Amino acid sequence: MKNRFTHWAAALLILVGLLAAVGIVSLCLGTADIPPARLFAALMHGGDTIERTILCDVRLPRILLGIAVGGALSLAGVILQGLFRNPLVEPYTMGISGGAALGVCLAILLRLGRHFGVWSLPVAGSIGAAAAIFAVYFLSIGKGGLNIRNLLLIGIMISFICSSLITLIMAISKVEDLHGIIFWAMGSLEQPNLLLVRIAVIVSVVALGVSYFFCLELNALLLGEEEAFHLGINIENAKRLLFILASVMTGLSVSMAGIIGFVGLVVPHFMRLFVGGDHRILIPAAWLCGGVFLVACDTLARTVISPTELPVGVVTGLLGGIIFVYVLCRRPEGKTRCSI
Amino acid sequence: MLDISNLTCGYDTGFAIRNINLRVPSGEIVGIIGPNGSGKTTLLRAITRSLKPAGGVIRLEGEDIRRMKIRDLARKIAVVSQSAESGFMTVEEFVLLGRTPYYDRFRFLENKNDLKIARDAMASTDALRLKDQLMSRISGGERQLALIARALAQEPKLLLLDEPTTYLDITHQMGILDLIRRLNINFALTVIMVLHDLNLAGEYCHHLALFDKGAIYKFGLPEEVLDYRIIEDVYKTVVIVEKNPISRKPYVMAVSEAAQEANRKHNQD
Question: What is the pTM of this model?
Answer without folding.
Answer: 0.87
